[in-house]
Amino acid sequence: MGAFLAVAFFAAMFVVPISSSAAEVRTIQYVTWLNEQVQGMERELIAEFERQNPDIKVEYQWFSSGEYQDKLETLFVAGLAPDIATMSWFQNIPGIVRGLYVDLLPYIARGGLDVNDFFPVMLDHWRYEGGLYAMPMHGDTVALFYNQSLFEEAGLVDPNVLYDSSSWDWEAMLDVAKRLTQDPNGDGAPDQWGMSSLCWACPERGFALFPALNGVDLHNADRSATNMNHPHAVEAYQFFSDLINVHRVTGSSGLDFPTGNQGMVADAGTWRLPVYSEAIGTSFDWDVVPWAQGPHGGKYSSTASMIGMAISEQSEHKEEAWRFIRFMMSKGAMERRMELGTSIPSLRVATQIPGPLRDGPPEHAYRFLEITERAHEPWVTGLADPVAIQQLITNGLRPLMSGSTPATSTLSTLAEQVNRELQEQREAR
Questions:
Q1: Within 10 A of 162 (CB to CB), how many other CB atoms are there?
Q2: DSSP string over 17-37
Q3: Strands 26-32 and 56-62, bridge-based pairing
Q4: 8-21 pLDDT, tens per residue?
Q5: Which stretches within 116-230 are classed as H helix?
Q6: What sign does the dihedral 373-375-376-378 (CA atoms) show?
Q7: Spatial distance between the Cα atoms of 203 and 176, rounded to a whole number of angstroms
Q8: Which of 86, 330, 348, 366 counts the highest number of beta carbons within 10 A?
Q9: Is the pTM of this model over 0.70?
Q10: DSSP element (H, E) containing 48
């Protein structure tokens, strides 16, 4: 780490111009909730930015994830909003609709950043009515982790082999889930599960993922109507309900994967890589494979969630804030995120360097990078109140996911409710 902090290393690493102005130093505030590992990396980047830009000081403020949104809202209401805010893929979208953040496209038009260098899904998340209201720092996608040792013991073909031959579909996934679910003493409580539990109420791992795997967007492009009652979406929701209630191949949370009694993990993504690597060690072989596709799938590989940086409309130092954001989007800064290996940098070129996401473990960790190119745009983009939509969908899907009602009737009723809520949110803008 000492080498990273060396001036000579940084000078070669970053290409953001250094200001030679002797003007008054201006302080910009940057608030975040990101974890300690990311904080350490960002503090190092801030120190280098300040060295290259002696006319700007960055005041770094951290709130816990549980209090971040309330604290940020309080600052906005009081007229004390930070110059730059870390943006959650979910909670901060309403702020864009409410006009709390600056459209960054005019700044980008000056040069210094090419939007084509970024993963499209990570940029598109922050678009709204022709504007771009945040620059993506990094993101996560979801995939299936699996216990290679259990597959080998059962004589099953490795899922990555099936994936490479375009044979990794729902039928194949269900087959291996059935064969890996074992109840040797016949007490009705399997000692080994083919798959972990489904976090169906979690958007990116559940209700938005399921239809995407069968080629359907959760909502239409302008967010005026849902596609949940589309025939291919109905098929998807019924399939995943049946995994739980008919085939009974889903067990406990994927957090139990390191115990070795789960064939596949259905509720995890890039953020679990370091967790599993440390917890599993050498106790068994494991890997990751993209989600299996439905009969009408192929359009999307997965779903994604993003973290971004936005400039507050209340900021009195927007130019300085943009200089800092541009620095944080540079190749050198993004490569630091790649080195951490906990999430995917938004800048494509930064994913080419060695690191956990490219080199593993596990062997196919790089699949997450492939997945990101075809990930489904987050369902929350452009919504005034995504929390209300999520609650409505979660409550409406519960009878289906518990096996009480079929997908056709459940989704017909739910689609009407969601459409009314979407319309009300559009009218209230």
A1: 18
A2: PPP---PPPEEEEEEE---HH
A3: parallel
A4: 334 444 444 544 44
A5: 120-124, 148-153, 159-164, 170-180, 209-212
A6: negative
A7: 25
A8: 86
A9: yes
A10: helix 36-52
